Amino acid sequence: MTASPSVTRPYQFARLSTSGTLVTFETRSKDPLEDEWNWSQEQIGNVFLAEWVCRRAIDSDHNRRDLAEFLKKQKLDSGQMNDLASMIVDLAAEKAGVKGPEEFVAHVVDRILSAARAGSDAAAVRDGRTLATTIAMKAVDKFAPSGTSHKDRAGMLLKILHGPPVTGVAFSGTIARMDFSGVQFRDCRFDRVMWANVRLDERTVFDACHFVGGMIERTNGLGLAEFKACTWDTEAEALIRLAEAREGRRKYGHDDLKADIGRVISKFVSRGGLLQTVEQRNLRRGTIRGSKHADDVIEALISNVLESHHISGVAEGGYNVREDVVDAVRFFTSNGVLTGGLKYV
Fold first, then answer.
1. Which of 58, 67, 93, 191 has most Cβ atoms within 10 angstroms of its Cβ?
2. What does pTM read for this prediction?
3. Contacts by 176-180 with C-beta closer than 8 Å and gap 24+?
C-alpha cells in the first residue's frame, strides 16, 4: 500500500505596512507541495487597523491629524467600514478599563468626528461621520442587554454620540428599535436608511439634515416629525410625504396615488425598459409598504392592469402586465401620466 502524501499547512507571516496613515495587512503563504508564494487579504488586518485607530483616538490631541489623514487615504467601502467598526467595538471591552466600554466607544467616536470636521476633503468628512455613527450603532447592539427598551437603546446611542442634540453624523444601513421621541438631529445625513421599528413624534426635529432614499418598516411618527431647512432626493422626499399621509398629517391625494401606483408598476419594468414578471410576494415589498393604502392600490392594479402568471417553482405564482395595458404602462413610466387601464386604479 502506498502511503498518501501528507498535507502540509502553508507557512504564513504577516506584514503591517504604513504609508502616512494608510494601513494595510498582508498574509503571504507558501504551500510546500506547490512551491509557490501567494498573497491574500486576511480578517486579521482589521485587528491591526482597529488597534491603530483606537491608539490614535486614545492618545493626545495631536493625533487628530493622523486620523484625518487616515480618513482621507483609506477610502473604506461599506463592507470594510462595517468590519472595522465591529472590530473597534469588540476591542472596546478589552481596552475600556474602569471607564467601561460605552465611554471608551464614545471617546473614539468623538475623536473620529473631530478628525472628520478638521478635514478638507468632502469624501473623507462623510466617511468619518459614517464610520463614527456605524461604531456607535454597533456598540448599542453589542452592549445593550437583551430586552432593552427602545427608549434605553436610543439613550445609549445619544450618550455615545454626545447628544442630544445629535449633531454632524451620518446614518446608513438600518436604524432599529429606537425611540427618538423629542430628539433633535442637526446637520445629519441619512443615507438610504431603513427605519425599522423606530418611534418618533411631533417633538422630533430634523434641522438642516439631508436625506437620500430610505425605507420604512414598522416605524411610527416619521410623518409627524418637524423638518427644518432639510434637503432630500426625490426618493427620500416621496418617503417622507408618504409617512406624512399615513400619519394623517397630510391628506392622501391624487399625487400620492400616482406615486403609489409608480412604486408597484416600477417592479414590472426592467432597467432596459422591458416588461417583466413579478412574483406575487414581491408586490408588497419595497417602499409601497409605507403607504396606508398599499393593499387597495395593489388590488386595484390586479383588477385593471395585471394578470396572473405561473412561475415554475413558485407556488403562489406571479403577475404580468396585461397586453392591452402595456402601452399605458410604458407611457406612465416615461411621462408620469395615467392613461388607459391605469386611469381606473
1. 67
2. 0.72
3. 177/150, 177/153, 178/150, 178/153, 178/154, 179/149, 179/150, 179/151, 179/153, 179/154, 180/154, 180/204
